[in-house]
Write a structure and sequence with these properties.
about 220 residues, five-stranded parallel sheet, Rossmann fold
């Protein structure tokens, strides 16, 4: 049995927005490990609409309060889909965080997070473009495009490889999965329903990077 505390750092997809069961994928992967006999504490640190630029000032203090010395701990970053989004508002008209800046911010976080234990990185998810853009905030429009998300994901994969951080590309398999698309269409095109988070959790549970946290 492995006893481990895991902080999941990210945005609305990490938070589980759109999931009618309020579990998202972090709670689902945690439940699966408990069923395997492990003692897992899940800390969901996802905040809706957060970019890497918004996560960077907060994540370390949030992890320090939860991932204490003397315990086996890990961090899982799932950041970047909001970075790739095109924002049209009074303040800006362009991608929320340009790719070079996004890579710098996320790379710094992944490197620093090694102080808490093993670090994993999970890439951004595809959207239903026909349901874009989203305009939930007055005067702010977010437009998500799969080509942009794919480009960010590929760059994150290269960066993670250079840092020696396990990276899971979920964009490619989910984009090819009709069940994922159906889960997005049943929601808002960006966030899946519970069925989609179950699919995402399945990919993560079977990923060698994730399994490595429970080896030994």
């Amino acid at each position: 049995m492995v006893q481990i505390r895991i902080a999941f750092i990210g945005d609305s997809i990490t938070h589980g927005t759109g999931d009618e069961t309020l579990l998202g994928w972090p709670m689902r992967v945690g439940q699966a490990e408990v069923a395997r006999g492990h003692d897992v504490t899940v800390y969901n640190l996802g905040i809706r609409a957060d970019t890497s630029a918004l996560i960077a000032p907060r994540w370390e203090a949030e992890c320090s309060a939860r991932l204490k010395p003397g315990y086996t701990c890990a961090t899982v970053f799932a950041v970047g889909i909001n970075d790739s989004a095109h924002e049209k508002s009074e303040a800006m008209d362009g991608q929320r965080v340009p790719l070079d800046r996004s890579l710098d911010l996320i790379g710094t976080m992944l490197t620093k997070a090694r102080e808490f234990g093993p670090v994993l990185s999970i890439g951004p998810t595809p959207v239903v473009e026909a349901m874009m853009p989203l305009d939930r905030l007055p005067g702010v429009i977010y437009d998500f495009r799969n080509d942009d998300i794919a480009a960010y994901s590929a760059a994150y994969a290269d960066m993670a490889a250079g840092l020696g951080v396990p990276y899971l590309d979920v964009f490619a398999p989910l984009r090819a999965d009709p069940a994922w698309a159906a889960a997005l269409r049943a929601s808002d095109g960006l966030h899946p329903t519970a069925a989609g988070y179950e699919i995402m959790a399945s990919h993560i549970e079977n990923w060698s990077g994730w399994r490595g946290l429970f080896a030994g």
